[in-house]
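Please fill in the sequence for the structure shown.

STRUCTURE ENCODING:
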């Protein structure tokens, strides 16, 4: 069943429009609270709410607080905090729910709501569908009497709790002394905790994009815009650059030469190292259809396999839990370490990579180039207003074009096309052994989709 509000990663759209007006977000809080308060083992259920640094976060924090307290929840506010911190704190503090207000890597104009259950995992499809039903049926919301309205408190030690949690994800003997690290916090949720964590582990930190003002989150910085990071790494002679996104659940690195190290290369390095240490469960990792075929071939050469999933870290998580795996992720930099957390954590991923560098005494450029990637290109086609992405993909002429490319690349490349779950985009990805084949097919496919969308 298709969903009205939830996409691949919670509810996300332009702030103060559609599903994300103050009134609608209040109703989201009420709907989520009503669904889960019946499952609470506590006399008074509790929800923990965090946010990133977007201007609209203040409005949505207040709206959610009103919605949850009106159905009898107590509310714990932790302020700006990474998404993985909210998931961890929800479980650690015995809350019944966790909510993160963030649109991840999107610009400040957007915002979103991610929801975690008591164990720190994201919602199931069935839970999302029931919440949508309740949002659209406000008459079914059971408001509590005045004596049972919830209270709200703000806690001040959330950052310290998360910093210690992250530091315990690596060996206690890890010392980053001697490393010069440029850290880009995307003017986002980790602007305080990320520099503090890495500094406490001994590194020299050059911190950039760490002055959020409500509108500069992800603006020419962070994991989707690493140009400034690369420039500063080269200028300062740093050993490595680390770029988080707005809510710090993903990371992209660059080596000492300023060359990008994407999520596939990070996963390759960690997977093989963990396998050598006997830590990698199932002799496999989970990754999405976007991961490069070069990663798949490299893992196979090391006796490991790649379990592919639909795009979205929640699908990676599902595959990991079903197959008994403890590591997985996305090329975009989401990486999940089930031994430590229940959702993608960019800071933990960065520390795992740094710990291998230090233990093996190798440079980021060597560790970050484990395999030669197949030529791959991803193009995002923004659709005209009112044009439905799925309708375009269902057109016969588009289907025929996709099948023709798939047939011609069979065994020597891949075509993967999908609609975005968070933006009015169709994402077209093509990879092939030969660059010319990749270029030819992505040009044909993007031209066909644009032509169809314009009709």
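FILLED IN BY: designer on duty
SEQUENCE:
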């Amino acid at each position: 069943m298709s969903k009205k509000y939830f996409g691949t990663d919670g509810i996300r759209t332009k702030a103060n429009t559609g599903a994300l007006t103050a009134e609608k977000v209040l109703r989201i809080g009420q709907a989520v609270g009503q669904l889960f308060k019946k499952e609470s083992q506590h006399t008074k259920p509790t929800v923990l709410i965090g946010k990133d640094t977007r201007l609209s976060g203040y409005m949505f924090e207040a709206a959610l607080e009103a919605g949850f307290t009106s159905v009898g929840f107590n509310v714990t506010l932790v302020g700006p905090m990474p998404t993985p911190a909210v998931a961890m704190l929800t479980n650690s503090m015995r809350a019944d729910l966790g909510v993160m207000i963030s649109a991840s890597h999107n610009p400040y104009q957007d915002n979103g709501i991610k929801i975690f259950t008591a164990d720190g995992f994201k919602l199931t499809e069935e839970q999302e569908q029931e919440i949508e039903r309740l949002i659209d049926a406000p008459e079914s919301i059971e408001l509590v009497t005045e004596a049972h309205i919830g209270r709200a408190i703000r806690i001040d030690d959330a950052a310290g709790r998360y910093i210690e949690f992250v530091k315990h994800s690596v060996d206690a003997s890890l010392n980053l002394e001697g490393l010069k690290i440029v850290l880009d916090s995307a003017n986002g949720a980790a602007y305080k905790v990320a520099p503090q964590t890495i500094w406490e582990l001994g590194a020299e930190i050059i911190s950039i994009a760490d002055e959020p003002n409500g509108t500069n989150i992800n603006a020419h910085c962070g994991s989707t815009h690493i140009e400034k990071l690369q420039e500063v790494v080269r200028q300062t002679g740093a050993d490595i650059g680390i770029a988080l996104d707005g809510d710090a659940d993903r990371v992209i690195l660059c080596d000492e030469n300023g060359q990008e190290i994407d999520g596939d290369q990070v996963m390759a390095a960690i997977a093989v190292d963990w396998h050598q240490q006997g830590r990698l469960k199932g002799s496999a990792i989970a990754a999405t259809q976007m991961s490069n075929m070069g990663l798949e071939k490299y893992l196979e050469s090391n006796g490991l396999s790649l379990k592919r999933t639909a795009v979205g870290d929640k699908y990676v998580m599902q595959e990991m839990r079903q197959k008994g795996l403890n590591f997985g992720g996305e090329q975009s930099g989401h990486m999940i370490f089930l031994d430590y957390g229940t959702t993608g954590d960019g800071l933990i991923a960065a520390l795992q990579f740094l710990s291998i560098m230090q233990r093996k005494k190798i440079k980021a450029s060597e560790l970050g180039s484990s395999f030669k990637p197949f030529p791959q290109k991803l193009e995002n086609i923004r659709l005209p207003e009112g044009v439905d992405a799925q309708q375009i993909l269902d057109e016969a002429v588009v289907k025929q074009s996709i099948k023709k490319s798939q047939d011609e690349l069979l065994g020597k490349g891949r075509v993967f096309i999908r609609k975005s779950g968070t933006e009015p985009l169709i994402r077209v990805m093509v990879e092939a052994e030969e660059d010319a084949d990749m270029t030819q097919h992505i040009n044909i496919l993007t031209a066909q989709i644009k032509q169809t969308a314009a009709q």
